[in-house]
Fold these 2 entries.
Entry 1:
Amino acid sequence: MLSGLSFSAIALLMAVGVLLDLWWGEVRRWHPLVGFGNWAIVLERRLNQGSLRFARGMLAWMLAVLPLTALAALLIWALALPAAQAAVHALMLYFCLGLRSLRDHNLPIADALSQNDLPNARLLTARIVSRDTTSASEIELTKASAESLLENGNDAVFGTLFWFIIAGGPGAVLFRMANTLDAMWGYRTPRLLQFGCAAARIDDALNYIPARLTALSYVLLAPGLQGKRRAWQCWRAQAPMWDSPNAGPVMSSGAGALGVQLGGAAVYHGEVEHRPTLGNGPLATGADIGRAWQLVARTTALWLALASTVAVLLEITHA
């Protein structure tokens, strides 16, 4: 392990980090990722101008991510007590996870839709997605929320856990910062097309394996053999048609596991974007948001169980 931790310690600290996230949720004030986002805004304003926008974007990415990743690694190295190092690893993971945040931001949308409160559902959905929700219907709001849950299950939970396994707390920090920069700079707008290209490509690389492990997890947790077959077939047939090499497998397998239809047209920045269909089945409705959350929650439990099982087997092997 690049973190210097045994796999048993990694498995234990993964569980601790997830439990802290579910217990405390997001830090209301002075959240490290909020501060990082503000720093990213400053860098983009200063460097995204003139010529050589791609090179400037790469420089901005390095200035944003590398010093803080190095600082995280240095902090752990400087601590003398193994218990203190373990605590910092767990806290770094906690700050990088967003499992409870996914629940807290999406289930209220399902509640609003169940009460036919479209204005509130539109307002809540607009807080988590970049698409226009001003006149969105229940089906459109459901698609936005369910797609966000499935994709961000990978970005905010499983990708973070994967890089925590590889490199401990600093690995989780590196991944979440890279993913945050992709979310901020990766839009294909005239201003960000070249500048954000480096952030988008780096995030694609870091997310390549986690996204496919997430997609495989969604397949395994689909109900029944028919559901698993459907999720697998949706992944293989629909993912190649999606622009994002990582969002495609995650969302197509997730929609297939739920047995609903997602994707399709959505309004971004005032323009209708015609996206491929995801999944197979009836159009998703408000109740399916809760089912998408349950899929993400069960996938988290699966990952923790697998990590614990591997840790026990390794201990037995080396006993």
Note: Strands lie at 261-268, 271-279.
Entry 2:
Amino acid sequence: MNKNEPLVTGTLLLEIGALLMSSGANTNRIRLTIKRVADSYGYKADYLITHRAIMLTLHNKAEEQVFNQLKQTYNFVPNFRIVSGISRLSWQIVQEQLSLAEAGEEVERLKVLPHYPRLLILGVVALACSSFCRLSGGGVIEMSVVFLAAFVGLFVKQEMGKKQVNAYFGVFFAALTTTLITGGLANLFTYKNDNMAYITAILYLIPGIPFINCTSDILDGNSLNGVIRGINGFAISFAIAAGLILGLFIYNLV
């Protein structure tokens, strides 16, 4: 065995775990993926997976500790292309016996995969919100208002993310911006379902992934991570509500 092999293997496993955590994977998926890859390379893995860091210890076939390290996870940016790509990679390692170098190259490739064009993301998200408005009884005017408000609100949220503004403040200002646009247009145009427009315009901010992972983690017995993700989801919900209420207060609607 190459004396650097445990270090390379451990570093690869920590990178995989950190990427999965930051991309929106639940704790059980991270645990199974790390174990699968470690077993394939002939190591026994002991790990502690938290929301902000991952601790990993590797033992060789002689039960000797050969690697022990802790790695902080990255900022939470949902990316299911990375989640599915790493899952696929882990099975390739098992079935095709990929070398550590090949596995590392694939991880690096996944990290730099290009995102969808920004305008496409903004447009599709805004269209989704306006579609919910239509399903809730909104007409063409309401749908147009929701589309514009969600488009601009998400743009504001993305810009604040680029400037590394606190994520909760980013959600708050996005919700406020969306509500101000919806209310401002309500003063220019008369439409029936203005309340529904306010509600559906901010649907893009709903923290679905934290709440889903919260439930999944708790059911799998990963209670600590589940509670942390649940609290994160409630904090985001509070920021959304605060932005919405402040916007409504400005227009004397509350």
Note: The two ends are 69 Å apart (CA to CA).
